[in-house]
Specification:
Elements: E1 14-20, E2 24-31, E3 36-44, H1 49-63, E4 65-72, H2 82-98, E5 101-106, H3 110-118, H4 132-165
Parallel strand pairs: 1-4, 4-5
Antiparallel strand pairs: 1-2, 2-3
């Protein structure tokens, strides 16, 4: 299966970017006209993909989005492993349930880039290690930022592709 499927041509609607994890879903919102993506929310995974789809559909409707860009966990050698297959299955189910167009974007190293952008987790209130709640909040922030990086990479690549297609 290809890495991407085309989103609707000329669409000015916003796009939802997804960084799918085992426990959380990082969500970003992108504006294709302005070529910008911003971290938006971190969702806890639902009990079923239908629960996830309902939460994403709500965000898409609220934000006026017509498409999803889901980060695809490609192995460093470029191959797809079991996690990529699970992500594709989840993404197709969510896109089908929500009626949103779907596109995949290679997410290699996005969490590392997000951590680099945000910085390391801070110390706890008493100067010791961060509390469980602080660690969870930090991971949620990383997930949102990773989703924004995935979506920004897609917006940038799509902008270049569109520019190359325009007659000279």
């Amino acid at each position: 299966m290809p890495l991407s499927r085309d989103l609707p041509a000329g669409g000015r609607r916003r796009i939802v970017g997804i960084d799918l994890g085992e426990r959380r879903i990082g969500v970003a919102i992108g504006d294709p006209a302005a070529l910008t993506a911003s971290p938006f929310a971190t969702l806890s995974r639902g009990k079923t993909v239908i629960d996830d789809a309902a939460a994403i559909a709500h965000i898409a409707a609220e934000q006026g989005a017509g498409a999803l860009v889901v980060g695809l966990p490609i192995n460093m050698d470029g191959s797809e492993g079991p996690q990529a297959a699970r992500t594709r299955e989840w993404a197709v189910a969510v896109a089908t349930a929500t009626g949103l167009a779907l596109r995949y974007r290679d997410e290699r190293l996005t969490s590392e880039r997000a951590e680099s952008r945000i910085g390391k987790a801070g110390r706890g209130r008493s100067g010791g290690p961060p509390s469980a709640a602080q660690r969870e909040a930090y991971r949620a922030r990383i997930d949102r930022e990773a989703a924004a990086l995935i979506l920004q990479d897609d917006l940038d690549a799509t902008s270049v592709e569109n520019a190359q297609r325009r007659p000279g």
